[in-house]
Every structure is written in structure tokens, then in C-alpha cells.
């Protein structure tokens, strides 16, 4: 449990909750991503051990990212009781993850072009 508390504090100060997807309208922001960038990879390795996700090398920095819906939900749910700064955004993220979006068929997509 103490690792989740550490992760929540670290994420609260260094992390980002990003909403992506959709060009606007009712499906805008349907994907929730968690991101932390650091010069030192070690705390990102710890986040990855706790919650999964991937670590990518950038120019003079590392990036930990979770995009898979179930992993994002798990991480936000575990960290939520310990978040302060990102608490409201985490609640919005969890709400968006529970919304069900209809999937367009290929034929519907083709008819729009």
C-alpha cells in the first residue's frame, strides 16, 4: 500500500492525465492516458511495476505512459484516495472510462468520406 501512496504523490506532482480522441462533439476525449516524464528512469520503472504501461526513451528524458483502458482505470482507482492536485481530473477520467461509445462500422466510416 505504501507504494501506491508514493506513486500517487509522485504522479500528483509530476504526472499528466490526458484526454484524447475524437475531433470534437460527443466523442471528444474518449481515451484517457496517464503520462509522466523524467530525466531519471528509476521512478518510472517503479510506476511500471505498480501499474503496467510502457516506458519510452526521448531526448534527454524518459516517458512512462498507460493507454490501455483497464490499466488506466486500475491506476486511477488505486491512486484516487491519495491524490490532491489531480483528484478532480482523475474523477473525470474515471467517469469517461465508464462511458460506452458505439463503434462505427467500416461502412459508416466510408459513407462519411
Please tell me about this protein's structure:
- A four-stranded antiparallel beta sheet has the order 1-2-4-3.
- The protein has five helices and four strands; from the N terminus they run αββαββααα.
- It has one domain (2-112): Endonuclease I-creI.
- By secondary structure, the protein is an alpha+beta fold.
- It is globular, with a radius of gyration of 16 Å.
- The N and C termini lie far apart (51 Å).
- 47% of the residues lie in helices and 20% in strands.
- α3 (69-79) runs antiparallel to α4 (87-98).
- The model has no long low-confidence stretch (mean pLDDT 86).
What is the highest CATH level, the class? Answer: Alpha Beta
How many distinct beta strands?
4
> Would you identify the regions where 5 or more consecutive residues have pLDDT less than 50?
none
Helix content class:
40-55%
Q: Any idea of the CATH topology?
A: Endonuclease I-creI
**Which term fits the overall shape?**
globular
CATH architecture, by name, is Roll
Q: Give the count of helical stretches.
A: 5
The residue-averaged pLDDT reads: 86
Structural class: alpha+beta
Number of domains: 1
Percent strand equals: 15-25%
CATH homology-level superfamily:
Homing endonucleases
The biggest beta sheet is recorded as: 4 strands, antiparallel
Order of strands across the main sheet:
1-2-4-3
How do the SSEs run, as a string of H and E? HEEHEEHHH
Radius of gyration: 16 Å
End-to-end Cα distance, whole Å, is 51 Å
Amino acid at each position: 500500500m505504501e507504494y501506491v501512496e508514493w506513486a500517487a504523490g509522485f504522479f500528483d506532482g509530476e504526472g499528466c492525465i490526458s484526454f484524447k480522441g475524437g475531433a470534437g462533439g460527443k466523442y471528444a476525449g474518449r481515451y484517457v492516458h496517464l503520462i509522466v516524464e523524467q530525466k531519471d528512469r528509476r521512478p518510472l520503472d517503479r510506476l511500471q511495476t505498480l501499474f503496467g504501461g510502457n516506458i519510452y526513451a526521448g531526448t534527454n528524458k524518459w516517458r512512462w505512459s498507460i493507454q490501455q483502458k483497464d490499466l488506466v482505470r486500475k491506476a486511477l482507482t488505486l491512486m484516487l484516495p491519495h491524490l490532491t492536485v489531480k483528484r478532480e481530473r482523475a474523477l473525470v477520467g474515471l467517469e469517461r472510462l465508464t462511458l460506452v461509445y458505439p463503434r462505427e462500422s467500416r461502412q459508416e466510416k466510408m459513407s462519411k468520406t
